[in-house]
Amino acid sequence: MHVGSWPLPLGGIAVHIQRLAHRCHAAGIEVEVFDPYDGRREATPAPFPVHRPNTSPLMSAILLLGKIWRRRTGWVHFHASRLGTLAHIGGLLLIARRGSSYAISVHGSFTHSWTDYGPWTRFNARLLLRMMDLVVVVNDEIGALLVDEIGVSPNRILVLPAYLPPISREHLDGFDEYEAIMRSHRRWRRDFDQQVFITGAPRRLYGFHLLLEAARDPRLAGVGFVFNHYEWSEGEPDYARRILTELRSAPNVFLVEEVSSRTFYGLLESSDAFVRATSQDGDSVALREAVSCGVAIVASDCVVRPHGAELFKTGDASDLAEGLVKVLTSDTAGRCEDLPDAAPALLEAYTRFART
Fold it and tell me: What does the DSSP assignment read for 172-219?
């Protein structure tokens, strides 16, 4: 059972869980998914059960613990970025766990979040992480933190970027907005020589404001910018309203919200560069998607990025503009080597780390 976000929306963790669950299913493993976060949205269809209760966080936790209590075999695999919410079930999980093996994939900016946690959250996070049979981390920095400060055994840590290739375009789609959006995009695109793509939530973390500022550089006058956003109402509503208002009024911006996977690929593959302007990060599934599509990468230097990415100083819009100019005027700048499929290593880890 995978526990975490399930599309929609198409955030990095949700896409990772979706593809991993499908790969497990294709390998003959019995699969189910429990998404405790947002039962208000319609879940993307799957050939296995996807539980998405439309209830309070407390009731979702109770339902999840009930499912865990009833399991006697197999794996329960948690997926999280900052662990803040998930950490608080650590003590209860000690009571609910029975014969299953337990794994957690730590995505995102966990190393930054850890310093912000209070004593109670840290206590629960330590409890949760130490009881795992397998801890998957997306970079070495998170792995070192788990060993040095949290006391997780290095023998139970697997460092593995979260990217999994798409299953198939047809299988993931099932939405009808593609033709309409791409038709509108083609009309907009005629006015621009090149195109830059960015995706994420309109929160400061994702740096939408930096790309808007960089786009004012005269050297980028012939460039159009595609912004794909999701979860706009969460996190920082004042910032989101201001940024989205500015995006909607900018003639060099094509703005879309929570598009289907088919539309996402259509917009990404028609781009000359992909920007990852985050101030904190893990590995970034979206960045890996761009690499797999052969799109040049311009990314903040807040974490280690794939070899070949054009880096800019985190939070520096002028340096971002310089990186974009360099990539858009070169055939080689920002080109990264594709990442191997992580699914075989994960499936092998399920066998190697399973409780006997």
Answer: H---S-HHHHHHHHHHHHTT-SEEEEEEE-SSGGGTHHHHHHHTTSGG
**Average confidence (pLDDT) over 249-254:** 96
For the ranges 37-46, 181-190, 274-283, the lowest mean pLDDT is seen at: 37-46
Beta-bridge partners for 108: none
For 253, the enclosing helix (H) or strand (E) is strand 253-257
In this structure, which CATH number among 2.60.40.180, 3.40.50.2000, 2.40.50.840, 3.50.50.60 belongs to the domain 170-328?
Answer: 3.40.50.2000
pLDDT in tens, 280-321: 898 888 999 999 999 999 999 998 899 999 999 999 999 999
The residue ranking higher by pLDDT, 159 or 172, is 159
Long-range contacts of the stretch 203-209 (C-beta < 8 A, 24+): 203/235, 203/236, 203/239, 203/240, 204/236, 204/239, 204/279, 205/109, 205/278, 205/279, 205/280, 206/277, 206/278, 207/277, 207/278, 207/279, 207/300, 207/315, 208/243, 208/247, 208/277, 209/243, 209/317
Under a CB-based contact definition with an 8 Å cutoff, are residues 169 and 265 in contact? yes
Q: Does domain 2-165+341-352 have CATH number 3.40.50.800?
A: no
**Nearest to 85, CA basis, from 139, 40, 38:** 38
- Per-domain residue ranges for the chain? 2-165+341-352, 170-328
Answer for the pair 142, 162: CB distance below 8 angstroms, yes or no: no
CA–CA dist 240, 242 (Å, integer): 5
